[in-house]
Hints:
The structure is a homotetramer. By secondary structure, chain A is an alpha/beta fold. Chain A contains 17 helices and 16 strands.
Amino acid sequence: MTTAYDIKDASLKDAGVGRILWAERSMPVLRAIRERFEKEKPLEGMKIAACLHVTTETANLARTLQAGGAHVRLCASNPLSTQDETAAALALEYGIDTFAVRGAERDHYYQHIDSALTFGDEGPDITMDDGADLVSQLHSKRTNLLDGVLAGTEETTTGVIRLRSMTADGALKYPIIAVNDADTKHFFDNRYGTGQSTLDGILRATNILLAGMDVVIAGYGWCGRGLADRARGMGARVIITEIEPVRALQAHMDGFTVLPMAEAAKIGDVFVTLTGDKHVLRKEHFEAMKDGAILCNSGHFDVEIDIPTLEEMASEHRTPKPLIDEYVLSGGRSIFLLAQGRLVNLSAAEGHPASVMDMSFANQALSSEWLVKNAEGMEPQVLSVPKEIDRDVARLKLECMGVRIDTLTAEQEKYLSSWEEGT
Amino acid sequence: MTTAYDIKDASLKDAGVGRILWAERSMPVLRAIRERFEKEKPLEGMKIAACLHVTTETANLARTLQAGGAHVRLCASNPLSTQDETAAALALEYGIDTFAVRGAERDHYYQHIDSALTFGDEGPDITMDDGADLVSQLHSKRTNLLDGVLAGTEETTTGVIRLRSMTADGALKYPIIAVNDADTKHFFDNRYGTGQSTLDGILRATNILLAGMDVVIAGYGWCGRGLADRARGMGARVIITEIEPVRALQAHMDGFTVLPMAEAAKIGDVFVTLTGDKHVLRKEHFEAMKDGAILCNSGHFDVEIDIPTLEEMASEHRTPKPLIDEYVLSGGRSIFLLAQGRLVNLSAAEGHPASVMDMSFANQALSSEWLVKNAEGMEPQVLSVPKEIDRDVARLKLECMGVRIDTLTAEQEKYLSSWEEGT
Amino acid sequence: MTTAYDIKDASLKDAGVGRILWAERSMPVLRAIRERFEKEKPLEGMKIAACLHVTTETANLARTLQAGGAHVRLCASNPLSTQDETAAALALEYGIDTFAVRGAERDHYYQHIDSALTFGDEGPDITMDDGADLVSQLHSKRTNLLDGVLAGTEETTTGVIRLRSMTADGALKYPIIAVNDADTKHFFDNRYGTGQSTLDGILRATNILLAGMDVVIAGYGWCGRGLADRARGMGARVIITEIEPVRALQAHMDGFTVLPMAEAAKIGDVFVTLTGDKHVLRKEHFEAMKDGAILCNSGHFDVEIDIPTLEEMASEHRTPKPLIDEYVLSGGRSIFLLAQGRLVNLSAAEGHPASVMDMSFANQALSSEWLVKNAEGMEPQVLSVPKEIDRDVARLKLECMGVRIDTLTAEQEKYLSSWEEGT
Amino acid sequence: MTTAYDIKDASLKDAGVGRILWAERSMPVLRAIRERFEKEKPLEGMKIAACLHVTTETANLARTLQAGGAHVRLCASNPLSTQDETAAALALEYGIDTFAVRGAERDHYYQHIDSALTFGDEGPDITMDDGADLVSQLHSKRTNLLDGVLAGTEETTTGVIRLRSMTADGALKYPIIAVNDADTKHFFDNRYGTGQSTLDGILRATNILLAGMDVVIAGYGWCGRGLADRARGMGARVIITEIEPVRALQAHMDGFTVLPMAEAAKIGDVFVTLTGDKHVLRKEHFEAMKDGAILCNSGHFDVEIDIPTLEEMASEHRTPKPLIDEYVLSGGRSIFLLAQGRLVNLSAAEGHPASVMDMSFANQALSSEWLVKNAEGMEPQVLSVPKEIDRDVARLKLECMGVRIDTLTAEQEKYLSSWEEGT
């Protein structure tokens, strides 16, 4: 069978292979799973439609699924995060059907999702999504392909929020595992991954000095607090905005300044949104900001900053450096937007480091295997990653890093299950 | 009705009152609840048997329950944590039945529990426990008092572990709310409270310089990670021991060194146990430790360090300062044990600061009110704190501190409940 | 020769000995010096008048000087920092002339300084000072004893500032080594010692939760930045006030908020002064503070907070806990002053941990030895600690802690002294 | 007069101008100086030979010197740090003689230095150096141009070490200001600049996750401790190697692990050298390293890692990604070298952020002005930046950032200069 693809530039293949192998060095858990899958073929015959950031880490996931016997069709979950050399290597070196071109326009992007969904006349057995665009397309425009779908997985918080809305509406047609719920996913990928890579994106785009800056972070979920720790670690003063009292209280007790955005807007040098919601930065905030304010987004969709309004407000638009748009507002103040408001860690840097994606994608691979064995006949619903998968991933990761831990003695196990022994 | 009590020294009353009012300044949420309880009397006629650390913060809780109309009988949940001046003030100024003497021997301690349980011929309507000693006594030795009990609350992780064992054994006879499960309890009390107060206890006992020391922390639960952050914040190098892979991995990714205790024992200058389990430090570890190693416990019970064995191993025993026991082992190495292995934050310092207990005890007070309304006829089981109580406590705390947060716009609420809008 | 002394309570001797030996465990460098001094007697016949905080660490310094052959007369450099049990042990166990009573009134305090200065009809050969009170007394009221003085040492920044003023006025009559200038003194004692012990004092006095608090620190010298790091490490938000642009800029770049005190006064929950100057907190600031603000001082003298004015402004004065004075201002706001504005780390806690004083006092002991050999005929002036002493102290400390470091290879030494080899 | 230049690509001019103006936004102090220089022309007629990293920040310095009336000839101080678009803009937009091509070979590099030194038949009036390559060349190969040289400035620690060796040898022929000695240079540029930009370089080259890694930092000078803080801030465990006891002790007390390199080599995931010395990582260390170890240098010269020996030891050499060289050693272990061992922050990222260079280069510009007024007739020597310049730079920077600080009251000034007032 020949490989189907729509990629930017075939000549980038070798560069892509080099980088995929470089990433693989930091993904020992996924490699161990791939080696097992090669022998056991647990995904034999499965058609998997995957809509993920087309990066070197995803390439190693795709190779793992393929090794397990699956037929994978891959499209991008964000037009700006695609690495064209990775796409080239996937299609031309590893024989994986790949539809991804960096910077693709909206229509082209959705056409790629359609390509990923279509296996000849059939739809996929399993969907693998990152933000629920593919699932949404399948449930609204391509319902003809829904019939044979067994199950799916979803990578992000944002996607899970959408899936829960679909479930509440009775719209969801098959069970989907929320990979983000796994401790080995959200504790690590959201926190350490987003924290570092968001700063990395900001630095690559701007080369500003973070020390001494006021960085405003909208949202104190796992991603937000990961970023807050890292920004403080770089010497910034961090201001948090929140809508949820318990989180706000935590941010306050963690030593950050908590303010409503209307106040924070006047102070911030850099603003980052990670809320999963819309228009977190909007007209009233743009009006209050200082000259030189830098805005970016590390939430899944590019709606967290109200860019259309910013464009309307601007009397002039410049591009001082690639990935930086300067909007000159009335009175001469300039506001700088990074990466067009798309995920700054993927658009301006390389996304999560391979080491965290190792665990997220190990959860993806093992969840797929589990679904093949268990999903038959399940109700449409959002499922958690089974606890034993979560713990296996952690145990395997520690082993790969050479970190040893304790085990309970018999006496200790007994003590934990008794209740008579007291003070 | 006259007040019943067994306290150390009536002359300490005034000192106790001063300190209770000082603590009250940091407990605005509980004060607000007390003011409402005084008007609404939601606990009218309830007999509450409370086994808690007899500290200034507990005094403010007892005053709140009393203001709500309850008859409270209070005993200590740990013989070393009792503040005798607080006990005196409770009995003599506030008219609360109090049975607590610092340093009480085992028999005296259990006699106090019995006193707290006995309201004339009857038992309590509600039990309020911290470590489940009172509940355990009631279910084993004082079963005659079990009949009329409506419900209970439990403050600690350790206690909840015991209650879950009781439930599994079918031994538990009434429903109990696990206050520790509230986000506004365990995020704050376990983390910030235990973190700071454990260091405080170590410093008051030893006056050592933490900067540059190797501090070994057994257990990376909420308490352990709170302490790890603070110890690092004081300039220590922190080593974590764990038995649970996901937690161990987090500790590693948080930049701590993760080791089995057998390795850590050779390196540590200071050891702190916060696991809820038994003999976390034991013979094999004592044998490996350096001369001068300092041991203490911040877990609920004094069983985490195997003290009997340490005593057996010692050729000599000294007390260089109050709260420090020196054990001279063969070869001349000395190991120093703080506060006899009891909760170092309560025994050598003053326990959690009032500001965190404000939230924990607000959950206690509101949970009691909820139980009076809802517990009738419930199955024996361990319940979570109702979410609305948790959120109310957080909201009230933010208000009291003058911290304002954002609210969702209508557009944002709508966006969060939709699933069609995507990339 | 009998020992002369004025102490509080002879019965405290044994408690004092226990604590002095406990401190000695953390002072291996000073112990090593004492062992050498016992053999070599480099201070034979020297009369040393020492005005230092009478703590367990100072006791070990006095023992070291005595072992070197000196006759030491010791008085307190602060009436509130004296540990009465240490004074008792010094006089009665170690035979050192000691004049120190905790809480001594002003006249009693100066009478002790006079006692320390007077060796029969003679004055001292060497003065050892902490804040320059003894030197000031000697140069103003006891000039008759000045004649035979060979040299002196001074421990603190504050004292050195006074000595430099004296030098500028031509008032200083003999050379004095500024021990504070040694890297192994100010980097460690000022930074790690003051940082930790100031927080320790605040916690012992108040038991407040630092996490989430706004802590205002006046002064970003070595002490101030040590405290700022630790306060942040405990979860506080830290605000710095400064008068020196380079330091203010550093504080800003270190991620702290820099404000004029007039602004900071409105925000702070806790205020700490460490400037070496007068009335850093004064009327205009008291008027701006929030209800409940806590004030303390960790600078040498109790003049940094304008307490007389605070007293005048207060309509009421209470003492809710020992070491806390409550001043009720008009409008009902309360301001709380800790330890009467004296050094909070010494008055409410135990001062610098022994481990840092080990290095400071090793510099003191070795500087005394150096002065005996070199001070004859030197001009009156403020001298630095000789570099070789500084480095020896560091090397010895590392050895005692078992920390090994690298040495240059021959090739590397050569490279460092060449200039031709380039890009 | 036409502009002389040797640059890579004239078509990059516009991109260069955009980036120079972007950097200028973060350099308000230098801009203020430029505006004054334009009016006052304090460098009128001066010939300045500058050997600096050819980056956007340097471009703004060159524009400032030019505005002051100087004729500037600029060459690169490191072949890998040159930004070709900046060079193009300098030569073609701003009319500054520029000799810099990224990746120039050794001969080409030294030819550029010669070009910068030669103003027709004459040499420069002032030299401005970064690492002392230009000064070294002038004193060894181009001594004919030495005669008219008035003075110079040197930017780096490494250069100053070389200049001190020259002075000790009697080789230096004119006075040079060590700009690195300015507090507003080394506190900020070395610490915050190198700290952030070194991590930035590592991340751009590798995209590894720093959280949980063991990062070995050779050298705990200002650069090393800046990096150590940042690496810890990103979640890494940091190991320090040092040869100087006081610094090693500080690293230990700051909570880092201090080890000899022979031990650290076995543990590290990433190694960074910042020592100013040669072969800090060498054969014995390569032999001990783990498979996958990543090596880089952030010290001035590429001699800190013994690359020739690493190449000899390797059985195979690959380039998995640009800027990463993989050396496969016997037994199959791979060691990865970043940016060929050249300054990783300049070679793999963009060097110090403009915000810190603003202060460093303000010192450069003001030192040049000072030298023109004061250097006539001075002895050859290494001079410090005059204190008033240092303070002016700090004051100006605070103003530009809108940070206000306190000033002493009259009473406070008086107190600081008095010595009688005491306890």
